[in-house]
Design goal:
elongated, mainly alpha, 201 residues
Length: 201
Amino acid sequence: MTDTASRRRGRRTRTESAGTRDRILSVAREEFSQRGYEKTSVRGIAKAAGVDPALVHHYFGTKEQVFEAAIEVAFAPALNAPEAFAEGSPAEVGERLTRFIFGIWENPTTRTPLLAIVRSAVNNEAAAAVFRRLVASQLLRRIASQLDLPDAELRAELAAAQLVGCAMLRYVIKVEPLVSADIEQIIARVAPVVQGHLTSP
């Protein structure tokens, strides 16, 4: 059967299916970013993407699974942190990791989707569970695996808590004078603390 005949009978080619899936995912990221987790629905995503809600379920499953797929793409830049962690001298790992994470937050292109993720995770337990699962499996455990020290997972979590806490105050809650402080000054003060969590005896 030709491709033309297949389309006449309502079947999608692989290219069409991939394009539809990508469009749904792009719309889902936008919806979650603008509306938050609670106010976003599968029906709303489907309407904005110009597809039937059943097709959203077909590609992604539940709303929670749609959210996970959407934030995994948005969170992708942060998932390169273990590579930044591994490069160079162990004595400078705190600064490298701190500079890498704040570099993502300082960039408006990567900051906007991160803000949407954090806000959704703070306001909704289902979104928080997805965020925890993603951070734990793809970020913290990978960093911990590179630490040849006792309590490696706890060390990685404490370092992450330091960085996430500062990011929350600066970019989400916007507390002064942290908001107006020069980023280099923040890195200079935070990096030694992160270094201590990761490498101190």
